[in-house]
Design goal:
This protein is 0% helix and 57% strand. The chain is mostly beta strands and 119 residues long. The protein has a single domain, classed as Jelly Rolls. Strands 1, 2, 3, 4, 5, 6, 7, 8 and 9 form a nine-stranded antiparallel beta sheet that branches. A hairpin with a 2-residue loop joins strand 4 and strand 5. It starts with 12 loop residues before the first strand and ends with a strand. The relative contact order is 0.27.
């Protein structure tokens, strides 16, 4: 059964591990689709520390830019870029100081465990 939701009716939640970072669950896990979608919004200079996820995720950058670390590599990403992060690989984000960073993130409905990783 189709579900249509407007993002303006879905609350943004602060991400406690992040700096100036909020998450919005656009679709819910367990909907039967096998995956769900989230929107992340990082204010200028915000970000997320080095961490791992138990599930892979794919991201589409909506606006702004960031330096993104994936494993031992660092990448500059901007609006229109697509990012794939394999399960279990350490990664982090530093949002642009002027524009911030906003992206969609699609993950499988499998149980996700997020663990912070020491630098």
């Amino acid at each position: 059964m189709p579900v249509i939701r407007n993002r303006n009716q879905i609350p943004l939640e602060d991400v406690s591990a992040g700096s100036k970072t909020q998450r919005q669950s656009l679709t819910e896990p367990g909907s039967g689709a096998g995956f769900h979608m989230r929107r992340f919004v990082m204010g200028p200079g915000g970000g997320m520390p080095r961490h791992t996820n138990a599930v892979e995720h794919q991201q589409y950058v909506l606006r702004g830019g960031a330096e993104v670390g994936i494993g031992d590599e660092t990448h500059q990403v901007t609006a229109g870029d697509v990012v794939h992060i394999p399960a279990g690989v350490p990664h982090w984000y530093d949002a642009d100081e002027d524009e911030g960073f906003e992206f969609l993130c699609v993950v499988p409905d499998d149980e996700d465990r997020i663990e912070l990783v020491d630098e």
